[in-house]
Amino acid sequence: MEVQQIFVSDENKAKEVQQQLKEGGDFLSVANLYNEAAETEVSFGKNEVPQEVCEEAFALENGQISKKIKVDNGFYFIKCINHYNQEKTDANKSVILENRRKEAFDDVYQEFLSSLSSEFNDSVWKEVKVEINEEVKTDNFFQVYKKYCNW
Predict the structure, then answer these.
(1) Crossing angle for the helix pair 11-22 and 27-34, to the nearest 10 degrees
(2) Which of 6, 54, 84, 141 could form a disulfide with 77 if both were Cys (CB 3.0 to 4.6 A apart)?
């Protein structure tokens, strides 16, 4: 959804914005005077904004302006520019589908991991000997590998 927004943190400013919009004030002009948000024109999908804003915004048709929307830290006014953006909706669906696939895989994989049993073999580990070769002059594995393994 593409919208224009006005956000104010003060209730008195919200009343002023509400009054100007009610009297037919141009949304962008009012936004230029009052908006405390970083941007006036924004795009978002469901669940990307506070629930109160989501419910009001997605009920609007193109060109409609919301009533005052109270949220935890202030008030929003939303003007719907484009209720449905096919390209962004398709992209969002792809992201959601990929997230669901990953979650499904993770669930199956975690179940698989929990079914595995493993033990640390102390007796074998105690037999491991680290040899120090004086010819080795680096601590970089790949340099040693190149030198001694003809890489």
Answers:
(1) 160
(2) 6
